[in-house]
Sequence to fold (192 residues):
Amino acid sequence: MSKAEKATVAILSRSPSHLLHRALQLALDVYSEEVGSGLTQRQYAVLAAVAADEGLTQTDLVRATGIDRSTLADMIARMIEKGYLGRERSTVDARAKTVRLTDKGREALGDTAPRVADADSRIMGHLTAGKRDAFITALSVLSKAGEATLVGEPVNGKKKKKAEKPEKATKAEKPAKVKVPKADKKKKKKKG
Fold:
């Protein structure tokens, strides 16, 4: 392995974003092996969130699951088509619709929950018993930070900054314009 490759590996081995991505790959692979072709991990999360609190709105589900609003809207529509969820107008806000589990959704959740528990046990089995609580705590902190950004709330007391517009260059910073004599302009036009 070259020095450059070793340096890259060293950087990646300390990169939280890279390591979380790798951990997610492991988690999704284990989930897939345990659950099979049943509910996807996101479908399970939606059903579990709705089961925990019937009558959630789409905004409530964004907060509960961490799934972005547009993806969640598509998922809910598909899950309604499959018969897992039902939708009704909110009794609190006439503009909002709430989601509830159907009998089929409750059955799918019940069938899948033990297999998800097995997947979670396998994932946690990679950590020593003494590190498991700290791991869950760290993931919870990151999850809450992600939740805040999904719904546009401040993270750690700071509002998310809008992308700054580049400052206009001052006259001194602007590159000098090169003047082309008129005769040269005509020659260029004839060639092109």
In short: The radius of gyration is 26 Å. The domain at 3-155 is CATH 1.10.10.10 (Arc Repressor Mutant, subunit A). Residues 160-180 have pLDDT under 50 and may be disordered. The chain has one domain: 3-155.
